[in-house]
Design a protein that fits this description.
Distance between the termini: 97 Å
Helix content: 55-70%
Number of strands: 12
Number of helices: 20
Radius of gyration: 38 Å
Strand content: 15-25%
Length: 520
């Protein structure tokens, strides 16, 4: 038989192509489910989709086959997926809807064992006729469709499959009656996803449909697509219905519940993890006592304020950045009956903000102040100098022959030169001086309380320091800079631009005279 399968001819037809495309869609549904693996029931639903895709894919090949041996071969493959469906279908419904009862696991295990047994009996049906009796194929339009007498195992398996679909549909329908709002609509859509194929399934097995081939692949495709839309298209997995006490205990957020007097009455495991001081001993104690080291949090609760409070919890073993979101719990008469505090570790967020601020203020290549932040940084010093009637100095710096370095040795080496110059200049300037990369290969230094003589000495120190640097090994000559300086008392911050312009003009005089010098 295997040898025959290897040389078989396939009769491609519309139904088969539709089912093969549908199998790919169902596999995509499985991938979506696997990507939500942290959500309860998503892994089982993904496996259920894989089983459906397997079944539908080989059902398509069954309809493309032209002789009974090949048809039977592909039905054997179909049963690998089909045998797993009842157990996976009910297991998913139980997990997602949080249904617990004593015989849940034995039931799933029994369905799995029955499915395996039916699969093995179907593979050997020609020997005993328990599944298919005298299978043969008959032409129907452009298809070769298998026909057979229904053996006892086939009848039993059909009943089990139908009852599994009906049970899953019933579980979802019952959940609809207990839900409200958006969740009710989502559960209703999932219920339809199971009920519609159930109707098709019943009509087919009772021979009401005149279609001669198996329409069960269509039924399970509908189950997959409609349930996936219900779960993910509307965000249902974010609102999975669970028992109330288990919602609180399994929430991803760290939660604490207080009564109307501000006493701690409950907390979930996440809260104990994020704040080690929250243990069994604090139940019944006032939040003002337990959180006495966090006065802003205790004060907000006493004042019945719904707000977010940031504080440092590192002193009690918690994160350095912790946010407590306080919400009032209202009773039926809209009176305050307690508080819900949700704690969130914001350390990573604050670190990210700090990184963004750093990138907004510094030059990415050299690590110096960027041009925009330079003017912000010097403003306090400029205003101080104006108040005290002191002069300020500006030093404009340009790397000599830098374009030639880039052109001959490449931008990577040019970047290395700029970083080396930046490190050297930062180590050379005074502690009160402010250095920035002004643009390209230009740098700018601001000196508070500096006359022209002091500024000139600083410029010369910078020139000498750069000239003494060890150049990269592949450069044929020493690195030099041209320096232009300006200094004067100013009466407003706007005059800084004028001093920069003068320093810039002095810089270009230095370059015109050969570079590697300081010019006034």
């Amino acid at each position: 038989m295997i040898r025959k399968v290897c040389v078989m001819k396939l009769n491609f037809n519309t139904i088969s192509i539709i089912w093969m495309v549908s199998a790919v869609v169902v596999l995509f549904n499985a991938w979506i489910s696997f990507s939500r693996s942290r959500t309860r029931g998503s892994k089982t639903f993904a496996l259920f989709n894989v089983a459906i895709a397997w079944y539908v894919f080989f059902a398509a090949f069954e309809l493309m086959s032209t002789d009974v041996d090949h048809v039977l071969f592909f039905t054997h493959l179909e049963y690998i997926g089909l045998a797993a469906m009842p157990a996976l279908m009910l297991s998913f419904a139980f997990e997602f809807l949080d249904v617990e009862f004593q015989y849940r696991r034995p039931l799933i295990a029994t369905l799995g064992i029955i499915g395996l047994a039916v699969m093995l009996l179907q593979w050997t049906t020609l020997r005993h006729g328990l599944v298919y009796i005298r299978p043969h194929i008959e032409p129907y339009s452009d298809l070769q469709v298998i026909h057979f007498g229904k053996g006892p195992v086939y009848i039993l398996w059909t009943a089990i499959l139908g009852m599994s679909v009906a049970s899953a549909a019933t579980l979802f329908i019952r959940a609809v009656g207990k839900a409200d709002g958006l969740l009710r609509k989502q559960l209703l859509l999932a219920s339809v996803g199971f009920c519609l194929p159930l109707v098709v399934f019943v009509l087919y097995v009772t021979s009401v449909f005149s279609v001669p081939y198996d329409v069960n692949p269509f039924s399970f495709i509908v189950v997959s697509v409609m349930t996936t839309v219900a779960l993910f298209g509307t965000g249902m997995f974010n609102f999975a219905p669970v028992a109330r006490e288990r919602v609180f205990m399994s929430m991803g957020e760290s939660c604490v519940i207080l009564d109307e007097n501000g006493r701690i009455v409950d907390m979930n495991p996440r809260a104990k993890k994020i704040l080690p001081i929250l243990n069994a001993d604090v139940i019944g104690r006032s939040v003002s006592d337990v959180f006495s080291m966090f006065p802003s949090l205790a004060r907000a609760i006493v004042r019945q304020e719904e707000k977010a409070v940031d504080f440092d919890a590192s002193s009690v073993g918690g994160p350095a950045r912790l946010m407590a979101k306080i919400s009032l719990i209202k009773d039926g008469s809209k009176q305050n009956s307690g508080y819900l505090i949700v704690f969130e570790d914001t350390s990573e967020r604050h670190q990210m903000i700090a990184e963004l601020e750093r990138y907004a203020t510094m030059d990415d290549l050299t690590g110096l102040n960027n041009r925009r932040h330079f003017f912000k940084a010097i403003r306090p010093e400029v205003e101080k100098s104006i108040r005290n009637g002191m002069a300020v100095g500006l030093i404009m710096i340009d790397v000599d022959d830098f374009k030639n370095v880039n052109d001959v040795h490449g931008h990577a080496l040019g970047d290395q030169v700029l970083r080396s110059c930046a490190r050297t200049m930062a180590a050379t300037i005074g502690t009160q001086d402010i250095l920035c990369r002004f643009g390209g290969d230009e740098f700018l230094v601001f000196m508070p309380d500096a006359d022209i003589e002091k500024t000139q000495k600083e410029g010369e120190r910078l020139r000498s320091a750069i000239a003494s640097m060890q150049p990269p090994w592949c450069l044929e000559k020493q690195i030099h800079i041209s320096v232009g300086i300006s200094a004067a008392p100013i009466s407003s911050f706007d005059e800084i631009e004028s001093l920069i312009s003068k320093a810039d003009s002095a810089l270009y005089r230095a370059k015109r005279h050969g570079g590697n010098q300081v010019s006034l």
